[in-house]
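Cross-check.
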Amino acid sequence: MKKKRKNLSVLSVVLILAIATGLFSGCSGTAASSAPATTPASQATAATSETPASTGGALQKVTLQLKWLPQSQFMGYYLAKSKGYYAAEGLDIEILPGGSDIIPEQQVSNGVANIGVTWTSSLMKYQGQGWNLQEIAQVFQKSAMLLVSKKESNISTAADLKGKKIGSWFGGNEYELYALLGKQGLDKDKDIQLVQQDFTMDQLKEGKVDVAQAMTYNEYGLLLEAGYTDKTLNKIDMNEQGTAMLEDCLFVNTDWLAKNEDVLVRFLKASIKGWADACADPEAAGKIVYNENKSVSLEHQVYMAKEVAKLVVPEGFDKAKIGYMDTAALKQTADYALKYGLLTKAADLSQCVSTKYWDKAVAK
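Predicted model, tokenized:
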């Protein structure tokens, strides 16, 4: 999560400026005036269901937009492509890398991609602005967010955060932290010092912050690779604190979906199969992702794959339910998003989420 890509189009820049002026509200099925016009499916980059794979054996083009650069966070899709699972479903999958200057919701809304990967809380924000987007699978069942400190700082509980200098990436990553502070009765503006955090973890290593945000599958691994151990670090896990918010999910533009329901179900079938294989053998999955981009070390991709598997198929979770959308977890995410300012109106989950296509994909 370090490299930046400078590949925004002029249209993307205009759209981002438009987004910045929009107001957050609850989920809506009708596009608000502040939302960008949706590119008709006939103008999108991928084919519609009007050109099925059965026609002359041609594969249907489907484009998936990732939230970040190629890494094991997305290993299920890369493995499904590598093993031919999409092709077996009559699909020609194109996986678009993300980056710091790529907004998945925008890419799917304007037709650059058909399906996107984003954090559930982020999707709710754009849905609240009136964008015609709908979640169709929840890949991560748990939050990967940690607060990490050095053992000698004696910060082992959320109550110990009072008076400390805490790093945050912001940009949507701060809301679980706000929820944690709020649960402890701590004022984020008075009881702690919040500072902008980069993705290197150098600020924590150099003592410039007392506590840093870290994802289990990435930044925490960077600390371990730097010589720290579980015994020399303290972790505060958002899942254990009851302040977790859902992260990686799959979503679509509802206008595209109306013409491509069968395509989506076949995409989900192949993706779920890819994720099942990746979680069963994360080391092999990490190698496949490494060969895709080689932006970080093989060891780090394998570490990441093993940790991501714990989020997709947590202990005690039925692996046959990969992508399951848990109503209670979705509601908790929406409630915290509203309470701490990501939304200004309660999300209507009946409009934000549809289980219909996932149900069809996992049906025997």
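The chain has two domains: 10-38+57-142+246-362, 145-241. The domain at 145-241 is CATH 3.40.190.10 (D-Maltodextrin-Binding Protein; domain 2). Passed to J.P. for a second look.
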